[in-house]
């Protein structure tokens, strides 16, 4: 495979520093079978009336044969169903009908009946419409009084909230209802004003901003006759990082006995723990609907490949492989573990890609919200591109046509792996996933959640020597520090000792970030080193020359926003680490200068290691 790569792209990426060419283990799973071949003859397209940019291997597994025309919904809603659904479906259907997706079919009547729902369906199978449509239809049957909020949709991330608002706007376009969005990082004054001057029948919000407004405006009054509440990405919203905020929000809502309302929880992943918590939010007679068969694997038939290499030096070859396969339609997402790591990787790819890789986009919580939204929008529209991203886009985001998802480094959990991977192979299309792990991280693939997934080693690759990447020194220091912060949660699980943890960090600095000073590692402030429990260890550089007179690191000019957004959006660690992050977020205002990127390190006694099981260290 590498030979092939070398022939096609003789100048391989400079992403991985002065690295010694090294063979590493890898594997690949067959790509998603060409699903056209699996279609029954009568479903095959009658004529080749088909646009080249549309994925030929679209399959209908997640779409039912129920036509929207026959669904028990109002004509106003029917007329609003996006036209492209018809175009998408008609290639397989002689009747040129618009068909519902299977999760909508499974839940529509229950949703219309008003019963509480807990719903699980794979990523990219149309859950958004499945929760919006019944809620809107119930609204149509019982029109709200002006000024009241009737449907509240909560989303864990701002980009997802915007996306839901857009879909809701499409669906209500023939109804008199209006949709408002409340997200952090944007002007709260403007949002207050809009709440007072515009209808807000459907309110889509992120929890933090919603709670702010509940405390400072008469929004709680407007929620007095609420008819439905939806928690999208419910397992994320119900986990420990959001729990307090969510509880406070629910305290502002009217008593269910006086004002009955429907509660709907949706996600692609619902652990046993989450199912237990849901009882607090749902009525005892709630219905659990899942489109996953009992023993079905919760990913699509993507090619799932795992690469074990030393850090991210394979990234460019893997991305180029996708370009070779998809040409101008190659659209990839690269997930990184921290905001600064994302920034560094984007820069490295930009430098590496000239002329051989699609344009690079970058998104993480250290960018201003407006910039984040603009980048997300641009990448949605792009036919081809590489979005280097932290976990802010891991859940729910629907970027059409993503052909490849690469995960560099450890996802925070098996669930997060599934959500990230779910950015490709959406709406029945095919896609491929690759995870690149350093040898000491490969034990992650042996955890029970991950073992169940069909991840194959990638074919072995040989890498040539490549030049040292050139990164801004400040960005190198920030990314190094963020790496230490993120990996601090794994010290007991995957590193043999704190010393090994430091050694791996220094290797990352040299091999990935291109840190050129062989005599010493990137500098850390003594406070940072102490918090991480590595002060005084070999290879830790707390030399004062690197710091301002106050002893803290100087900040980077690369990212416009120094303010970290709420509760660690960049990575979504589970269990104890999230507990730590919440605690740490409270400290942020008083301790802004101590900067780990957005992955902030746990305090040593912070009770942050919940998953005590060992991943078995290096392979
Ligand atoms: N009936 C349909 N016909 C064709 N396309 C559809 C249909 N329903 C939904 N889609 C499309 O499928 C894509 C995925 O939908 P959506 O984002 O709602 O998935 P999801 O299940 O919420 O994903 P995730 O688990 O990642 O949040 C969207 O582009 C949506 O427009």
Automatic annotation (TrEMBL):
Q: Extract the ranges annotated as region (Disordered).
A: 519-619
Does ATP-binding count among this protein's keywords? yes
Annotated Helicase ATP-binding domain ranges read 108-288
Q: Where is the composition biased (Basic and acidic residues)?
A: 581-595
UniProt name for this protein:
ATP-dependent RNA helicase
| Natural source organism | Boletus reticuloceps
According to the entry, every stretch annotated as the Helicase C-terminal domain falls at 310-474
Asked whether the keyword Transport is assigned, the reply is: no
Compositionally biased region (Low complexity): 554-565
Q: Which PANTHER family has this protein been placed in?
A: RNA HELICASE
Q: What is its EC number?
A: 3.6.4.13
Q: Which UniProt keywords apply?
A: ATP-binding, Helicase, Hydrolase, Nucleotide-binding, RNA-binding
